[in-house]
Specification:
This protein has one helix spanning 2-16, and strands spanning 29-32, 35-38, 43-51, 60-68, 71-79, 87-94, 103-117, 122-137. The protein has 1 helix and 8 strands. Strands 1, 2, 3, 4, 5, 6, 7 and 8 form an 8-stranded mixed sheet that branches. The protein has a single domain (2-137), classed as Immunoglobulin-like (Sandwich). 11% of the residues lie in helices and 54% in strands. The two termini are 28 Å apart. A hairpin with a 2-residue loop joins strand 4 and strand 5. With 138 residues, it is mostly beta strands. 36% of the residues are buried.
Length: 138
């Protein structure tokens, strides 16, 4: 299940870079912590906080993409709790060959709801908030 969520988060975070924000309610917000980690085994961990109000029409996720040099990789996907309160998010993924290194990088994070559409109920992304932020990997 974790692998599916990570894959879905990575794909949706990548899609967010080209899709406009469809909805941005006053209470929907997203932040990225200025520091991330890259472990010796290639595990990258990013974090931040989010706030959303309504997940009644579909599940909400925090996705993140890490960019360093010409490399860009989706890093996990965290299921959000939309109760109007501020919550922390943490996304991790093992990235190898070539891996990320300590130093400056950029994160694109999205707060995205999957909303069933059409007669088959195919879930389509609705972007609630997006944030691009410089980070330092340590």
């Amino acid at each position: 299940m974790r692998v599916r969520l990570a894959l879905a988060g990575a794909l949706l975070a990548t899609a967010a870079a080209t899709a406009p924000t469809a909805h941005a309610g006053a209470a929907d917000a997203l932040s990225v912590d200025p520091r991330g980690t890259v472990a010796e085994d290639g595990t990258v961990t990013l974090s931040g906080s989010y706030r959303c109000v309504d997940d009644s029409t579909g599940p909400v996720f925090v996705g993140s993409t890490l960019i360093q040099g010409s490399r860009s990789t989706g890093i996990g996907g965290t299921r959000a709790v939309c109760d109007g309160l501020v919550h922390e998010w943490t996304n991790s993924a093992v990235v190898k060959e070539p891996g990320y290194r300590a130093g400056e990088a950029r994160v694109e994070a999205t707060l995205m709801r999957l909303t069933p559409q059409g007669p088959l109920g195919l879930p389509l992304p609705e972007f609630l908030a997006a944030r691009e932020s410089d980070v330092t990997l340590g």
